[in-house]
Design a protein that fits this description.
Strand order of the largest sheet: 1-2
Order of helices and strands: HEHEH
Structural class: mainly alpha
Number of domains: 1
Radius of gyration: 15 Å
Number of helices: 3
Shape: globular
Strand content: 5-15%
Length: 94
Amino acid sequence: MPQHPVTWARNARFKLTFALGGCCVHCGTDKDLEFDCIEPKGHHHHAMGYVPRTTFYRRQHKEGNLQLLCAKCHRKKTKADLVKIQEMEENEPF
């Protein structure tokens, strides 16, 4: 009998966390961990349901674009990413 999709996603996220080392790549804590795309992919995946978002993160991991950050480090990186994106947009020729 196949796994329930939410059970599959929970197990997949656990395996991803383990594969990524189980701690924040910046500060080393193992508390409040979140998946982060190294190169930002926008925010559309945050609106996805649990199962599709897990599939998105698995794909990012296969592409080498996923890391674990604690909530505090993730907020700092997101803020820096937004500044970087804004600067790039300002420097684009029309």
